[in-house]
Design brief:
The chain has 386 residues and is of the alpha/beta class. The chain has two domains: 122 residues, no CATH class; 243 residues, P-loop containing nucleotide triphosphate hydrolases (Rossmann fold). 48% of the residues lie in helices and 6% in strands. α4 packs antiparallel against α5, α4 runs parallel beside α6 and α7 crosses α14.
Length: 386
């Protein structure tokens, strides 16, 4: 155990600048909370060991160590689900961020997970045992390219099912893991995602589709409102540059790539139902159609007035959130430099000739026509404003 713990604490560079080892035969002072946790665990105070590192703030390296130690403690207690939950959190910390950059922690996390398996020894069950979702109740994946109505639909589905929602993204408050869930829960579970995943298999998925041009305009606003957004946008001279950047570096790629994956999965036999942004925003019956597809026997509310009130409440909550709105001088300045006719979120006011051509060359036209947003394959050659 001593060797494993030392490797845990020393594997990623730079995180021990104020944490000195205190094992026998080694000298050190001012042990930080990681070492305090280890000391408590060695003394038999396992609850204290876990508590002292819960919610550890600071660098990602420190958070990785905290998750790893929590997983190790769970393994020593033979609490496999908690151990798997912690290793899942480790994987998310090492995943690429929204701007497509891969963390330098990836290899370190792989080493950590190997150490966990080694520490558990022959008493460890397969880490693959919990990957498939086996719940008593219906599980529904609500998938959309970012800025395509995912939040809106989920809130309405929560209303008609009186059910909780979760997210595939660890940073969100209600994270759903394939490794840790209540398999005996007979209720509906709604899970948010931004890309259709082949591993959904025969689980039901609703894929939400919005006009890709409006989605890309909205995505621009969202990214610009992020801490690193202005620096990223500053490298672009036009909206065409933004579309190319998204296709190359954004975590979820370009709009058309996301739609194509869902269509290919459906054609291969996946249980996928498509719904258009305009339909579910303007017609409460579309939400009920989605509910009937997911789990008709679990619908507890069918009143259109209640759904409209739910939607209105959501809009009220989000109207002052920068990434959901169009306020802010930096956004206005950027758009005014790209389009002399900016008039809100309408793509026609943003897409100049270069942006239209780029959207087409990235494969967007095929899916605009497929979902009825265009009928002319040469739409991109025409000026929609002039």
């Amino acid at each position: 155990m001593r060797d494993i713990i030392i490797r845990i604490l020393n594997n990623a560079p730079g995180a021990l600048k104020y944490c000195l080892p205190v094992f026998p035969g080694e000298q050190g002072t001012k042990p930080n909370v990681l070492l305090q946790s280890l000391a408590l665990h060695a003394q038999g105070d396992r609850n204290g060991a876990r508590t002292v590192i819960e919610g550890l703030s600071g660098s990602r390296e420190l958070k990785v160590r905290a998750h790893l130690l929590q997983a190790y403690y769970a393994l020593t207690d033979h609490d496999w689900r908690r151990a798997l939950k912690c290793t899942n959190a480790l994987s998310d910390l090492a995943a690429p961020d929204l701007f497509g950059r891969h963390s330098d922690l990836k290899e370190t996390v792989i080493q950590y997970q190997q150490l966990i398996e080694k520490a558990a020894g022959g008493d460890r069950p397969s880490l693959h045992a919990y990957r498939k979702i086996r719940r008593a109740g219906p599980t529904a994946h609500i998938v959309s390219y970012p800025r395509s109505g995912n939040t809106f639909v989920i809130e309405c589905l929560k209303y008609i099912f009186d059910a909780p929602s979760y997210s595939r993204f660890f940073a969100d408050a209600r994270y759903f893991s394939n490794t840790c869930y209540d398999g005996e829960d007979a209720g509906v579970v709604i899970i948010k995602d931004h890309v259709y995943r082949p591993e959904y298999g025969k689980e039901k998925a609703v894929v939400l589709v919005r006009d890709g041009r409006d989605s890309m305009v909205s995505l621009f606003h969202y990214i610009l409102s992020s801490p690193e957004g202005p620096e990223i946008i500053a490298t672009m001279a036009s909206f065409s540059d933004f579309l190319i950047w998204a296709s190359r570096y954004y975590l979820f790629g370009f709009w058309a790539d996301s739609i194509a994956l869902a269509i290919e999965s459906q054609e291969a036999g996946a249980r996928v139902l498509f719904s258009k942004y305009e339909d579910f925003h303007n017609n409460p019956q579309e939400i009920l159609r989605l509910g009937e597809y997911i789990a008709p026997d679990h619908i507890v509310r069918r009143d259109a007035a209640g759904m409209l009130a739910c939607a209105a409440s959501l809009k009220e909550k989000l109207k002052d959130v920068p990434e959901w709105g169009f306020s802010g001088s930096s956004s206005a300045r950027t758009f005014s430099s790209w389009s002399a006719n900016r008039g809100g979120s309408n793509w026609r006011d943003i897409f100049d000739a270069d942006a239209r051509r780029t959207f087409h060359e990235l494969g967007g036209t095929e899916f605009l026509i497929r979902f009825g947003y265009e009928t002319d394959p040469d739409w991109w050659r025409q000026d929609p404003v002039g």
